[in-house]
Known about the structure:
By secondary structure, the protein is of the alpha/beta class. The protein folds into two domains: 1-34 and 83-124 and 171-246, Rossmann fold, CATH 3.40.50.1220; 36-80 and 130-164, SIR2/SIRT2 'Small Domain'. The protein contains nine helices and ten strands. The chain has helices at residues 6-17, 51-54, 57-62, 64-79, 85-96, 111-115, 173-184, 201-207, 234-242, and strands spanning 21-25, 101-105, 121-122, 125-132, 145-146, 152-153, 160-164, 188-192, 211-215, 228-230. It has a six-stranded parallel β-sheet, with helices on both faces. It has a two-stranded antiparallel sheet with strand order 4-7. Strand 8, helix 8 and strand 9 (211-215) form a beta-alpha-beta unit. Helix 5 runs parallel beside helix 9 (234-242). The protein binds adenosine-5-diphosphoribose. Adenosine-5-diphosphoribose is lined by residues 26-28, 31-32, 37-38, 106, 124, 192-195, 198, 215-218, 220, 233-234.
Amino acid sequence: xxxxxxxVGKVRGWVRAARRIVVLSGAGMSAESGVPTFRDAQTxxxxxFRPEDLATEDAFRADPKMVWDWYAMRRAMVAKVEPNAGHxxxxxxxxxxxxxxxxxxxxxxxxxxxxxSPGVLALHGNIAEDTWLEAxxxxxxxxxxxxxxxxxxxxxxxxxxPAVVWFGETLPPEVLQAAQDAALASQLMLVVGTxxxxxxxxxxxxxxxxxxxxxNPQASDLDAVADAVxxxxxxxxxxxxxxxxx
Length: 246
Ligand code: APR
């Protein structure tokens, strides 16, 4: 493991040489966009609740309106923010080099997609989208959707819920599989803004046969498996690494 400004040049060389690259991103990727973390968002009326007690299927079933209202607050926060220079540098690289870089993100804020990244693997879902609580029946269609908090199927009562992975839930298997395949096929993984403590996402960095570069202003659990650690913010370092003439 190394650390220092000279490493940026070395990692730029690794980027140029790699045929396949994976970016594994976490909450720190969006820090410079001003996305409040789970805990920072707990202000005002919500200050007395712990996010871990709201972001679960049990909490939703016990009080669907309360959990729906909490997500409405979080959705409103995310709707106000913009991709930062890091998201944009990744998307621009993908447009210059189609098929060469895959984004697998733990973030539900949709900022990689807004920046123009194609085929983002949203391991923990997307906060802007809804899905059905129970497996949808034939009657569960848009035509039968009854508005409300939450909306429901007018025929069977099936509820809409945010399309995010709640605590205790498994990741969407096809998304996780695609991320594992990309990790195994890559020569370089950029691990950006994640503490590396939540699995299976963190396991992608441990499974890749390629080089691992951690981009994080602070120590993370994945520093130990990194070939280089760049101490800095995503919005500053990613343009330096990915732009042709930074
Ligand atoms: N650039 C890069 N990294 C940063 C920046 C920045 N500007 N600012 C902070 N960080 C780093 C922090 O040092 C920390 O290591 O981002 C990391 C954020 O860690 P977590 O908050 O634990 O986020 P994450 O790893 O994405 O959490 C994983 O846990 O809360 C659940 O489901 C949620 O997807 C989330 C998962």
